[in-house]
Design brief:
By secondary structure, the chain is an alpha/beta fold. It has 16 helices and 28 strands.
Length: 551
């Protein structure tokens, strides 16, 4: 029996389709103790993680080792003053130390703030200042320590600084300290309602929002792992995401370990389809999850035979029918799409026991009550567009897995839950068979290459260029990325549109933006289309006539 069965009751159809799930857990449920340590006590040599990198190094960790290493890190953190309620930022790429550090922080009752190494110094300043971080643990690679150290000083945040793997000036070496620490750790009191994770998500009209999840969050990913990704007992699941993104929580730790699957971790910087497939075949990956961008590259480069792979899933942006068909033709596996947000867990998917429908987000998760409503909050009929909203549970409470708040912004949280339902901001329609089809965002979030980008962040940088009088950023269709970031720019009367100026603006901005936020196109326009209240109409911009260059 997998450990997840201690925390839920399932009702299945004869085909194995999940019809109903009821979660139950104690008030002090803690993933570090009740899952990791429990598995380590019962099946200590059970494989938890298979790790490798582009240099040919590999490590295979059992649950006994994850438990022991996380205890060592917990002792290091505790001795330094990290405790229940402390906030610790982790910028650890795909290094194996992430799994030890995050489990250690869970055991302490601390709040983890995952972040990607791709952020700029300004991005880190904002996050550190907003979260008032007590500590940072980061990779020693790529100048990240220098960037984070400067960001902490700029933010005026007094915090502890650690790197992993090797030394960096001004940072302690967590790997070395943990190696000398005791692996004995006594359980400390925590509450399931305590904040466990803070993820920063993009916004359209302001800076990124801090999304708070509590200690019940891992249990909501049982459905994610077992019934969508179809991770198996003693299988090996591979989700491509880097640890700075919420998708890592979806596919690289919680649900997978709960259902008894090991996780495959490939530590790389630059995506190379052949290397990815080689990892799948070398280690016998049984289930795989990646954004559509990865599948587009795989299809373009040619997919080799992958005999161990039994299931493939995708989420994060629209999947083209061509990619769906070609992947299935070459592997025999349909791509099972899923849908959710940083604020939630999996809301809809093509689940186990259902026939995957090409291009559809699938059906509603039995874990949630989801509806489509119009702008007045009224239910819409099948075939009509509506906003995806989440209703409270049958007990009237916030469902497990739905975020517990926005960081220091209760007003924004109340607005998200206006009318007694959580508004996702996504539009969709339901067909006559109960399958949901994504239509787009009601706001202007851009989904590019599997990442979500808020236009506001890019527009703020654009406005710093002296030739930009006014600007707006949108996502436009792109064959490889799903969407590419396009900037519309109004110039002063003294400047003339040109290819040279376009390159100058792109270089200026992209040198100041994280790579996934890079502007790919610039279009010069005479004026911005606006509403009567003065807001830029981004929908109209996509139809705007460009100014001729050189005139």
């Amino acid at each position: 029996m997998s450990i997840y069965q201690r925390y839920c009751q399932e009702v299945l159809s004869p085909r194995g389709e999940l019809k109903r799930i009821q979660l139950h857990y104690p008030d002090n449920f803690n993933f570090g103790y009740d899952v990791v340590d429990a598995i380590a006590a019962e099946t200590p040599e059970k494989t938890a993680m298979v790790w490798c990198d582009t240099e040919g190094r590999e490590r295979i960790f059992s649950f006994r080792e994850v438990s022991a290493h996380s205890n060592r890190m917990a002792n290091v953190f505790s001795a330094a003053g990290i405790r229940r309620g402390s906030r610790v930022m982790l910028v650890l790429k795909r290094h194996w130390e992430y799994w030890f550090a995050v489990v250690a922080l869970h055991k302490l009752g601390a709040t983890t703030i995952p972040a990607t190494h791709m952020l700029t110094q300004e991005d880190y300043v904002y996050r550190l200042r907003s979260a008032r971080a007590d500590a940072i643990v980061c990779t020693a690679q790529g100048g990240v320590p220098e960037k984070l150290g400067t960001a902490a000083r700029t933010a005026g945040v007094e915090c502890l600084l650690w790197t992993v793997g090797r030394e960096a000036p001004g940072f302690r070496n967590l790997t070395a300290e943990a190696a000398q620490a005791s692996q004995i750790w006594q359980r400390v009191p925590t509450k399931v309602t305590d904040p466990m994770l803070i993820y920063f998500t993009s916004g359209t009209t302001g800076y990124p929002k801090g999304v708070i999840h509590d200690f019940s969050y891992p249990l909501a990913h049982i459905v994610t792992a077992k019934y969508w990704q179809q991770a198996e007992e003693d299988g090996l699941h591979f989700t491509v995401a880097e640890t700075g993104w919420a998708k890592a929580s979806w596919g690289k730790i919680y649900g997978q370990w709960l259902v008894g699957s090991a996780v495959m971790v490939y530590d790389f910087d630059n995506f190379e389809p052949k290397q990815l497939c080689a990892v799948i075949n070398r280690y016998g990956v049984t289930s795989f999850c990646a954004p559509p961008t990865v599948y587009r590259y795989l299809v373009r480069k040619g997919i080799p035979h992958m005999p161990s792979l039994r299931h493939a899933s995708t989420a994060g942006e629209l999947l083209s029918p061509e990619v769906f068909r070609k992947f299935q033709q070459r592997t025999g596996l349909p791509l099972c799409e899923g849908y959710g947000q940083t604020e939630t867990t999996l809301l809809m998917a093509n689940f186990r026991g259902q026939t995957p429908v090409e291009g559809s987000m699938g059906r509603i998760s039995p874990q949630y009550r989801v509806a489509l409503v119009d702008r007045q909050g009224r239910p819409v009929a099948p075939g009509q567009l509506g906003e995806v909203v989440i209703l409270p549970g049958e007990d009237g409470q916030r469902p497990v897995g739905i975020f517990s708040g926005y960081l220091d912004n209760p007003r924004q949280y109340r607005h998200a839950w206006r009318g007694g339902v959580y508004h996702t901001g996504d539009s969709a329609y339901m067909d006559e068979n109960g399958n949901f089809w994504f239509h787009g965002r009601f706001d202007d979030i851009i989904k590019t290459g599997g990442y979500r980008v808020g236009p506001y962040e890019v527009e703020n940088v654009l406005m710093e260029h002296p030739a930009v009088v006014e600007c707006s950023v949108v996502g436009v269709p792109d064959a490889l990325r799903g969407q590419a970031i396009k900037a519309f720019v109004v110039l002063p009367g003294s400047r003339t549109p040109s290819a040279e100026l376009e390159k100058e603006i792109k270089d200026f901005c992209n040198s100041r933006l994280a790579e996934y936020k890079w502007i790919r196109m610039v279009e010069f326009v005479r004026e911005m289309p606006k509403t009567i209240s003065g807001k830029i109409r981004k929908t109209e911009l996509r139809k705007a006539d460009p100014l001729p260059q050189g005139q």
